[in-house]
Design brief:
The complex is a heterodimer. Chain A is an all-alpha fold. Chain A has helices at residues 2-22, 26-48, 70-101. The chains are: A mainly alpha, B mainly alpha.
Chain lengths: 114, 586
């Protein structure tokens, strides 16, 4: 189970990067960036996972019940917020780029060459 | 101290929120005053903290979650002279940038001020943070606001391209860092730098430690724009408004190097110290390669700001080489060099901003001779260029002399030779560009565009634009002669590199003992070496003005401006560093 989860995290990371490298659309790049970031969610949650443990809502369960690590869940939430911010900024840039260039192809935006 | 430290981040952050909400009501003018006030307030708080810190290390536990029995569960700011000093430098730069930008940045609506304050909060938070995950959060905070600030001139297509490349590569960099941080947590169960460092001191070093180190280091090296992670920087700094460049070039890249300091002396202090020789080799090679590539690529540029961007890359390479010495003297040298060189570079960017305002163009070949009337700007540019090469008795000279000293002790004089060569070439590029633009010297470039302003040239330079240049230049020069700088650098270097002291101080919730002593004054041969570097730079500049610029097709083709290429090279670089760190810690 755990090995598989880490494998999924690694796969998401690499496939997302491959997507960014190959993408010919800025929106595609943004989505692939989201895929790469998903790998960090999976990794964080896998690190805190305990087989057979409960969700860490300590009010509802008897003391001493094993729970999964709440710290990584907090980290994942923070990570999600960060990703939302980055995506928003990138999409705003994409909208502006489409207005200026009439295209979302990164190859059409290489004025900075050399 | 407990009450003051969180305010350093909270003041700019809350003011940003206030301006965001009330900006339209109070108007851009008042928003600008508020932003400047908050920045100066932040700087004032940092001065107070720095004075009370008195050269020690002191943890501040947010919400009063102090460690118990040597276990830290709370989130801390770990105040040390290096971090607080750098944060103060950043706040001062930001204040100057806000003054400088008053005329040139579009004031309505006051988004710029909101973004600038969030950017400031992210950067100072990064300097103070004693917690790995907060390091990541502040890293992202400054990155996201920097993406937006870079693209603030949305009417310029190039600004969007530069910002997109900047955003995508830096976001991947922060993912690398967060993966490394997750691995550190998986192994140690700790996010506090000192706590994780304490666990690594006693556990054995295996593959996971090396991989975690490689991931976090690569994340920060992307921000520092070290080869082969540097591509975004040239694109972004070339298009960002000059006022923003003052802070970007003066301080943001350097924070990547500070991140490396936190990693190699804080979290991984134990494993790195045990394999110091190999880690030093990896980092010094990366640093010197960056210094050389930055200088060579600066030579190949025709766009003034893009040229300065590559100069920035080259200098960051030297900073990394200094940290790579893994010594107190190396980090102390860099503390002086970063501040002094940051002032000089910021002055250069500010001068180019004035050129852009007065002449409406930033292409060197198109501007040939067009800047003859801008005598003062030209003089300031040339002075900043010579100072940044390391003119004796100025700040960059002191930083560079201390760095050379650390390099000789750490790896040998060959590294100094490379550093001197890179400095001389960068200086020559700056000087030849200056004499082309401001004196009309230089060769006839085939196909050079006719000078025709791209934007409406303004007839005058407001005092808000030239005064920051004067202040920055004065600071860059004064750092070399102010008494006590070498003592402060020694204290900053000694405290930031003392792994055992950091762990003991934070987990024991005490204050570290004070450090005495001072870095040595530069000996006579450093003065000679420095004069020699300036002379070589002038000779090279004269040569460049007489000969056609070599096109360097292959190297320039690598800098394709295409984000996919940059990410592919970033992955290759991360794999390379990963392999190198694994071998180094083996």
């Amino acid at each position: 189970m755990t090995v598989l989860t880490y494998g999924v995290a690694g796969w998401l990371f690499l496939v997302g990067l491959a997507g960014i490298v190959r993408s010919n659309n800025v929106i595609g790049v943004v989505i692939c960036l989201g895929v790469v970031q998903s790998s960090t969610y999976v990794l964080l949650l896998a690190i805190g996972y305990r087989t057979g443990a409960k969700a860490p809502i300590l009010a509802d369960i008897p003391t001493g019940t094993p729970v999964v690590d709440p710290v990584v869940q907090a980290l994942t939430l923070t990570d999600v917020v960060v990703e939302a911010t980055v995506t928003a900024v990138l999409l705003a840039l994409a909208v502006q780029a489409h207005k200026r260039f009439g295209s979302l192809d990164p190859d059409a935006m290489t004025r900075m060459r050399g | 101290m407990n009450a003051l430290a969180p305010l350093i981040v909270a003041v700019p952050m809350l003011t940003a929120a206030l301006i965001a909400v009330a900006g339209r009501v109070v108007g851009a003018r008042l928003a600008g005053v508020l932003a400047l006030g908050a920045t100066l307030g932040c700087a004032g708080l940092l001065v107070a903290v720095l004075v009370r810190l008195h050269g020690r290390i002191e943890p501040v536990w947010i919400g009063g979650w102090h460690p118990r029995d040597g276990v830290a569960l709370g989130v801390s700011f770990t105040l040390d002279p290096l971090g607080v000093g750098l944060a103060l430098f950043i706040a001062v730069l930001m204040a100057l940038a806000l003054v400088y930008g008053r005329g040139s940045l579009d004031p309505e609506p006051p988004h710029v001020h909101v973004l600038a304050l969030v950017f400031l909060a992210g950067m100072v938070g990064f300097c103070l943070s004693g917690d790995l995950f907060n390091l990541f959060v502040f890293f992202e905070l400054m990155s996201v606001s920097a993406f937006a600030l870079t693209a603030i001139d949305v009417d310029e297509g190039a600004a969007l391209e530069g910002s997109l490349n900047f955003a995508v590569t830096n976001t991947i960099g922060s993912f690398l860092a967060v993966i490394g941080i997750a691995l550190v947590y998986a192994r140690t169960g700790a996010l506090n730098i000192a706590q994780a460092g304490h666990v690594f001191d006693h556990g054995h070093v295996d593959g996971l430690v090396a991989v975690a180190l490689a991931f976090i280091a690569c994340g920060f090296l992307v921000k520092a724009a070290v080869v082969p992670f540097h591509f975004w920087l040239a694109d972004a700094y070339a298009v960002a408004p000059a006022a923003i460049c003052i802070v970007l070039a003066g301080a943001m890249s350097e924070l990547g190097v500070l991140g490396i300091v936190r990693v190699v002396f804080g979290v991984f202090g134990g494993p790195v110290a045990a394999h110091a020789e190999a880690v030093r080799t990896v980092l010094v090679v990366a640093g010197l390669a960056t210094a050389v590539l930055g200088a060579v690529m600066a030579y190949a540029q025709d766009h003034l700001k893009r040229m300065l961007a590559f100069v920035t890359i080259g200098h960051v390479g030297l900073f990394l080489a200094g940290v790579a010495m893994l010594s107190s003297a190396g980090v102390g040298a860099i503390a002086v060099y970063v501040v002094a060189d940051g002032c000089a570079k910021a002055a250069l960017f500010a001068c180019v901003g004035i050129v852009q305002r007065r002449l409406g163009h930033v292409s060197i070949s198109a501007l040939r001779g067009a800047g003859r009337d801008l005598r003062w700007t030209g003089a300031a540019f040339v002075l900043a260029a010579i100072v940044s090469i390391g003119l004796p008795a100025t700040g960059p000279f002191l930083g560079k002399a201390l760095l050379d000293d650390a390099l000789i002790h750490g790896v040998g004089s060959w590294a100094v030779a490379i550093a001197v060569g890179a400095s001389a070439l960068t200086g020559a590029v700056l000087l030849s560009a200056a004499s082309c633009v401001f004196l009309g010297r230089g060769r006839d470039e085939p196909g050079a565009p006719e000078y025709e302003p791209l934007t409406e040239p303004q007839p005058s330079t407001p005092v808000t634009m030239w005064a920051p240049v004067a202040v920055l230049l004065a600071a860059a020069i004064a750092i070399g002669v102010i008494p006590g700088v070498r003592h402060a650098a020694h204290v900053a270097g000694a405290q930031a590199t003392a792994h055992g002291t950091i762990v003991h101080t934070v987990l024991g919730d005490t204050r570290a003992p004070a450090v005495h002593g001072s870095l040595p004054a530069p000996p006579a041969h450093d003065w000679l070496l420095s004069l020699l570097t300036v002379a070589i730079a002038f000779a090279l500049a004269a040569y460049m003005l007489r000969h056609q610029r070599r096109p360097l097709h292959a190297l320039r083709a690598l800098h394709s401006g295409r984000v996919g290429d940059y990410v592919a090279l970033l992955c290759a670089g991360a794999a390379l560093f990963g392999g190198a760190f694994t071998l180094a810690l083996h």
